[in-house]
Amino acid sequence: MPKLDQNHFAPLLKSKMSPESYRKLTDLENEALFNFVGEYTELCEPDSVYMCDDSNEDAEYIRENSLKTREEKPLTKKGHTIHYDGYNDQGRAPGATKNLVSKELVPLMGALLAKEREEGLAEVREILKGIMKGKEAIVKLSCEGPTRSPFSIACAQITDSFYVGHSEDLLYRRGYDHFRLMAPGERFFRFVHSAGRLDENGNSIELDKRRIYQDLDDYIVLSTNNQYAGNSVGLKKHSMRLSIKLAGTEGWLCEHMFVMSVQNEKKGRSTCFCGAFPSACGKTATAMLPGEKIIGDDIAYFRNINGEFRAVNVENGIFGIIKDVNAVDDPLIFKTLQTPGLEIIFSNVLTGPDNEPYWQGMGVSHPKKGWSFSGDWFEGKTDDKGVPIPYAHSNARYTLRLGYLENIDPAFDDKNGVPVKGIIYGGRDSDTSVPIEESTDWKSGIILKACTLESETTSAVIGQEGVLAPQPMANLDFISYPIGAYIANNIKFVEGIEKVPPIYAVNYFLRDEKGQFLTHKLAKKVWLHWAEQRIHKEVGAYRTPLGFIPKYEDLKALFAEIFAEDFSEGLYRELFKFRIDPWIAKISRAVRFYYHNAPDCPKEYFQIWKSTVHKLTALKERHGKFIEPGAYSE
Ligand code: OXD
Ligand code: MN
User: How far is the CA of 402 from the centre of ligand 1 (A)?
Assistant: First the structure.
């Protein structure tokens, strides 16, 4: 403390902080943290700075202030609040998001939204000057992954938004005590956020000055003039970009993946899977499958711990899309969202005259007027181009603690994480990939399944929806160093792992020629249980040009056991036939994508893709357009 008292930021911080807040900051004896708070207090000029510790009193202070500042409003049910982001701030903003890297690295970043570091920092620091005038800033410390674990990453957030502070309290583990125990000089991630000038509804006005700049040399993110949590909550997507870079440097992985465990009650087994799916491809629905257990729904860290492939959920809560969440399709989340007394933030849904939230696909009729992300809403409201404005945004969200869920896995908080037995990459296409296919080995899984993953753009990202775009590892928006090196690190990660998990590619969206889905929504449970049985070496498989698929008898038995359903052989054949032309087209799209967007992508990967295309072309001569299950051998 005496040392910090002599720090040149001490007089400024004493003038802006209550003695209690100043004591909480100096008690940590962390000079880097003190300097961080000092530097951005000086630059952003908040009227006052509130330092949070891990107490419930401080959590309550943030929650109450998010109501006082009207960033959130109470809903009818106790603990439930509603927050609105601005009309043009309803998703991640790639146009305003940049990875700040050295001049030499910029040309290697290809599609990765890069900007020269010095230039980017100067630009965003100019915007940050005085941006918090008239507001209080809060300093909140959190920990990603379980605290005091081999996975932990300490994080410090400064923000002038109580909604951001509140969201972080629900989504991450509190980290003040973690900081207290940190070794001197131990690294932590830093996030600065300001919503900037606000209109009468409390929304950021200066969207032209919206910036989300990741300084990847210094592990700090500066985010201005925005509120949507994917842009504002430092620990969510910003931190993911910093972790991906750090992991690449240190030889572990940060992936855009859920962590869940498949329960085999008959055998008394719990088997952990991690899965990456681009938005709207079934990620949360897989992580939340009825009868299975959830560990996390969005971001995982992987480490080799004593030769074992182990994972943690980085987060402690869910920031989930609230569309098509209803009593039939998502009964567990639906029930949780209806429970009074739980602390839940709804965002960008309709608030009805009954002060209850209504969202798209809720399964109940919605009021004909209310308050929405577009302000006062009434049936028939249109935008300035005459296009009807929906009552709730299709990227509306709920924010809650994972601990509220009945299906949380007890291993959720294990300091050494959970042992991962299978990896899943999930895409969305109507006519290409079979419902589940196991890769022949890790490297081919990464290059042929993970790198070729693609999906249509959705409302989670501002811009045109429905465009087919490549999505390497469902992580394109977050990869923060050249893509070729990132792929190589994924391949390398399993060196030294004793039992390398198999990689599965899944696709829940095959359709028939009338456009109808070939299977019902819960069929994914069967695909996962098949993978579980494969991992435990209880079922065989047919070889395909790209891996292994289930045999009919094994799926028939699973459909009967899980759903008491008769799964017909005809449907099996339709689902699992290998579609040669679409696969050739898919790999060719990937080749084009990497050629144009990943300047450092090694030649070896192109050779693998090209030789696969040759192999498939030759197979077409022999088999015609499709290869029937069981008809292929190497
Ligand atoms: C998310 C996203 O919100 O990926 O998880 O956009
Ligand atoms: Mn995500």
Answer: 16
241 lines ligand 1 (CB under 6 A): no
Angle, vertex CA 601, rays to CA 595 and CA 603, nearest 5:
85
What integer pLDDT is reported at residue 1 of this predicted model?
53
- Domains of the chain in start order, with CATH, are 6-71+89-250 (3.40.449.10), 254-319+412-627 (3.90.228.20)
Residue that is written with structure tokens 């802006």 in the block: 16
The pLDDT tens digits for 281-321 are 889 889 999 999 999 999 999 999 999 999 999 999 999 99
- Token pair in block for residue 186: 């131990």
Ligand 1 atom closest to 229 (CA) = 3
Please tell me whether the overall predicted TM-score, pTM, comes out greater than 0.70 for this model: yes
How many angstroms is it from 239 CA to the middle of ligand 2? 12
What is the mean pLDDT of the segment spanning 233-238?
A: 97
Pairing mode, if any, of strands 542-544 and 503-507?
unpaired
* Structure confidence by residue, pLDDT tens digits, 572-610: 999 999 999 999 999 999 999 999 999 999 999 999 999
CA distances from 47 to 17, 197, 442 (A): 9, 14, 54
In tens, the pLDDT along 66-97 reads: 999 999 999 999 999 999 999 999 999 999 99
Nearest Cα residue to atom 5 of ligand 1: 298
Q: Is-catalytic flag, 52? A: no
Tens of pLDDT, residue by residue over 27-41, are 999 999 999 999 999
Q: Is the CB of 92 under 6 A from ligand 1?
A: yes
Distance CA 160, CA 147 (A): 26
When computed from its CA atoms, the radius of gyration of the chain, rounded to whole angstroms, is: 25
CA 193 vs. chain centroid, Å, equals 19
Rounded Cα distance between 356 and 337, Å, is 11
Q: How far apart are CA 9 and CA 464, in angstroms?
A: 46
In whole angstroms, what is the distance from residue 626 CA to residue 620 CA? 8
Residue type at 222 in one-letter notation? L
Residue whose C-alpha is closest to residue 628's, from 585, 587, 572, 586: 572
